[in-house]
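Predict the holo structure. Ligand: NDP.
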Amino acid sequence: MYVGGRFVGTDNAETRELFDPATGRAFGRVVEPQPSDLRAAVRVARKVFDESEWPWLSARERANLLLRIATKVEELGETFARLETLQTGKPLRESRLDVEDCVQCFRYYAGLIMQPNGMLLSVPESVHSYTFRQPIGVCGLIVPWNFPLLIACWKLAPALATGNTCILKPSEWTPVTALLLAKVLDEAGLPPGVVNVVPGAGDPIGRALVEDPDVNRVSFTGGTATGLNILQAAALNITRVSLELGGKSAVIVFEDADWECAVDHALFAIYYGAGQVCAAGSRLLLESTIHDRFLSELKTRAEHIRVGDGFDESVEMGPLVSEAHMRRVLQFIDKGREEGAQLVTGGKRATFPPPLAQGYFMQPTIFAGVTSDMSIVREEIFGPVLTVQPFVNEEDAVRMANDSQYGLAAGVFTRDVARVHRVVRRLQAGITWVNTYHTAYVEAPWGGLKRSGVGRELGIEAVHEYTEIRQVQISTVYAKSGFYPA
Ligand code: NDP
């Protein structure tokens, strides 16, 4: 663990073994902290927030610190990328993109925090009234296993830019890059105790973090079921919460779409990250006039995707994160078959060439002939499994896209500009991509509608998430209220 500016152990003798999902081999061990360790870390973060200079540093000082962090992450970029690939299995090219985005994220918030903090309000002449923002306090940052480094940086950069102290809890499966990041923060000169990294299981460690009355804000990314638990636990202390949860995002392709662009992005939307991406475009909606031809080309292209060990530079799709998760995805596939969906391609573990049988690889999978009530269409699978459905017109497409408990992302492929505007407005999605997919800019707010979550990451919105707004009214005259005359 990294607590109070030092790497420390725990009294708990148990440790957790970490596995490379590409080979199934154990590659290391990490401490298994206890709730008492978490409590001690929160106390440190509380004390630093309440008693140190950290929250009162000038924006310029914090910006300089963030720029130093960005440079250090950049310098260690290849090490971060290789460790990320080791613990998640994602291809190196994906890990490298994640690291680049982390660097951008720290630089962006270094710039953003130098902007004016507050507003002068247009109230009557006799009052000088203004707003300003201040840090919230101790932030509990709970990060999943699909983007362990990137999501940690999405949360840490705005939290630090605005002067909070943090407890970062990585997923029990993927704590390695978060611990290296702690070293980088330390070397960049972050005061001890401002960021503390406590690995460990969601329950009890994540739960203890959410329930701790000294934690003022929780920022969580993960599954909707866990998000619901967190919301309930946070309610007891009225802890501020933001939740970035699951999705079942639709990609709509109209007949007039640029063919190559649409086919390419339909594949990218679902198979990037082996489908273990909250915004994965897992429901493909095709205008009925192009359905058969598009599906046939998609099948051929999906069967050509190179599945393998992320350390092989030619690999295009890595393994799933763990055996347990792979089994969960395979169960969805079985259920799809039982419910009568037509398996177009894939549907099994990928075991060829032979070394793949040791890891948690899956074939890129496509189901057609599905109906909107099937579980593979309704539930987040979080694997390389695509469902394909035809639609007859624009209205039909929008209705089908919105027919989901989730509202994270959507994709639209068409050359008709007027239609783009009509469709985008009616889609229920926090993020809509048109003629592209999966691009995420640190400048743009990230988050979902409906059961995809509450609040936003990134952009100026994240500054608002990690600050409280205050208002001040200063009378410029010594006037009486007039309510209680002498
Ligand atoms: P979780 O939502 O359980 O995990 C996300 C993070 O929350 C992890 O750090 C986890 O710790 C922690 N956590 C788990 N339980 C609690 C709790 N009670 N209180 C506080 N923190 C907790 O995801 P799973 O790994 O279980 O994946 C299940 C499904 O969730 C996936 O199949 C996918 O559908 C979805 N998911 C969505 C993600 C997204 O980006 N939106 C990311 C990951 C999953 P630990 O890992 O140590 O248990």
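The two ends are 64 Å apart (CA to CA). Residues 2-245+452-472 form a domain with the Aldehyde Dehydrogenase; Chain A, domain 1 fold (CATH 3.40.605.10).
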